[in-house]
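User: If you would, consider this record:
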Amino acid sequence: MRIFLGITWLIVLGFAMLTPGDRLPEINAFDFQDKVIHTICFLILSFIWAGVSKNHLKKDKKSINWLIFIFLAILPSIAFEIGQLWIPNRSFDWWDLGFNQLGIWLGFFGYFKI
């Protein structure tokens, strides 16, 4: 079930991040809301994949856990941000990528602290 949830959330993020900018709703509730949204979205993704890697692999295979985590959380974050270079009214932003990574690490460490 967790794997299905992780894949579903990854697909939802892909659609959200690769949708042309003129098709997205214009909401300006507060400054830096875009960065908060990036952080929360990738925190959720990371939290899900941290649970998958912990529950489905033996503890003696920690290197495999890290590879799965990197492949399923970090690489999509980078790929989605780079993909925006070719999407109308979207652009690559180092700050967005940084906040994606912040969310990933908060989710990962948050999972293992809970």
